[in-house]
């Protein structure tokens, strides 16, 4: 999220026109084609999303051979002495039975909008602690360049067993300092390539069965963009940007986020929504008993966008086309960022988590309380129990 009405606009203070660090090297191309990234053609069918054969996990329901899950037990992924002790339990000479070692807990966390173009956030990100059995969701806006993506993904994968990512508006920026840089769909593809090089799961990859704490669930990263429909009813959509400018509000996206090869951002958004809608619907139809964890940088619902200082910024915050997706697609949790307003909401029995870190000044209060980036991670699963009536007052999370 960036608005001209705040100090953090257009120019990025810590960037100085060029990245403050050098690229980390060349990376291999993606292993599979991007049928959905070739421009304004009809969205691919569900099978093109790359669903593939999976193995069944303990505690997970039978999985048909079109859904991706983890291919090995979590105990095989970590150097844990408990695994070596397991066989000793059965071969012990003692006549009395011994207890089996406890299986490590597996939690799913999320954080968004880490904005690594800011030096304080880069320093903070390096303090991320290892969670060898846990998963992490990066909900977009890790930065503006491939180097920012590399930094975010490398650190996350070094600390977590699984990492999921969806793009925010900042990953899609083409900076003036990057002459002839990738634009629009090509810029998104560049980010996906970086993610895949680090084993990070993206919206272009199969949904994943989470069989850890709070599961089983389908982890569903999506990418929808926005179409200016979060506007008053009496404002024509073609006048939405001018309506925002009446109060000196203009998103940096209007200068740096290009829709190429689509004619407009609205056209790109429409194609993305159609594609994601088909993929979600097919997954729910095939696996009706598995609730979803939907991950999207932009909020799915307009009523969750409360920006008291810049209320007209909301036109860059989503699309009304996703308003009922949490009910339609059996979402247990919807994870988002973008607003830089940390909060937890309950709607219709679904938990909505806005878990952005934000610019350095936006989490300064937490730092002054002695908290670091680890304290700002939001637990998604298992998470709290839902309220009895399905709804609850907003829980504001100013300090995490």
TrEMBL record:
InterPro entries: Calcineurin-like_PHP, Metallo-depent_PP-like, Pantetheine_PDE. It comes from the Eukaryota. SUPFAM superfamilies: Metallo-dependent phosphatases (SSF56300). Transmembrane segments: none annotated. Residues 107-341 form the Calcineurin-like phosphoesterase domain. GO terms for molecular function: hydrolase activity. Residues 1-65, 381-400 are annotated as: Disordered. It holds the Pfam family Metallophos. Gene3D superfamilies: 3.60.21.10. This is Calcineurin-like phosphoesterase domain-containing protein. It comes from Verruconis gallopava.
């Amino acid at each position: 999220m960036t608005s001209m009405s705040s100090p953090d606009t257009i120019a990025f203070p810590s960037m100085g026109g060029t990245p403050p660090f050098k690229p980390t090297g060349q990376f291999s191309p993606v292993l599979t084609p991007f049928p959905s990234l070739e421009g304004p053609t009809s969205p691919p069918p569900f099978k093109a999303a790359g669903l593939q054969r999976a193995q069944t996990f303990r505690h997970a329901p039978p999985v048909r051979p079109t859904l991706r899950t983890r291919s090995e037990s979590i105990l095989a992924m970590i150097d844990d002495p408990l695994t070596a002790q397991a066989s000793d339990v059965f071969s012990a000479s003692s006549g009395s039975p011994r207890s089996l070692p406890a299986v490590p807990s597996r939690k799913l966390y999320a954080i968004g909008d880490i904005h690594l173009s800011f030096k304080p956030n880069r320093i903070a990100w390096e303090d991320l602690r290892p969670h060898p059995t846990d998963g992490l969701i990066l909900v977009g806006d890790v930065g503006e360049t491939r180097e920012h993506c590399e930094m975010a993904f490398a650190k996350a994968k070094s600390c977590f067993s699984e990492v999921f990512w969806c793009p925010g508006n900042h990953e899609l920026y083409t900076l003036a300092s990057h002459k002839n840089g990738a634009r629009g769909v090509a810029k998104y593809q560049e980010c996906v390539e970086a993610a895949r090089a680090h084993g990070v799961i993206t919206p272009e990859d199969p949904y994943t069965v989470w069989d850890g704490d709070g599961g089983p669930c389908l982890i569903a990263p999506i990418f929808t963009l926005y179409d200016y429909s979060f506007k008053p009813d009496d404002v024509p959509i073609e006048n939405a940007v001018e309506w925002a400018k009446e109060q000196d509000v203009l998103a940096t996206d209007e200068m740096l986020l290009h829709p190429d090869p689509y004619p407009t951002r609205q056209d790109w958004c429409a194609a993305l929504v159609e594609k994601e809608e088909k993929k979600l619907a097919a997954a729910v139809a095939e696996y009706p008993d598995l609730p979803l964890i939907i991950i999207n940088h932009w909020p799915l619902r307009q009523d969750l966008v409360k920006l008291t200082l810049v209320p007209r910024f909301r036109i860059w915050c989503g699309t009304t086309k996703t308003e009922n997706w949490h009910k339609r697609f059996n979402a247990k949790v919807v994870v988002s960022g973008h607003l830089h307003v940390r909060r937890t909401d309950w709607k219709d029995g679904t938990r909505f988590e806005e878990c952005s870190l934000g610019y350095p000044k936006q989490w300064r209060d937490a730092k002054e309380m002695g908290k670091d980036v680890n304290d700002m991670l939001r637990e998604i699963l298992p998470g709290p129990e839902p309220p009895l009536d399905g709804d609850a007052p907003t829980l504001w999370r100013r300090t995490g």
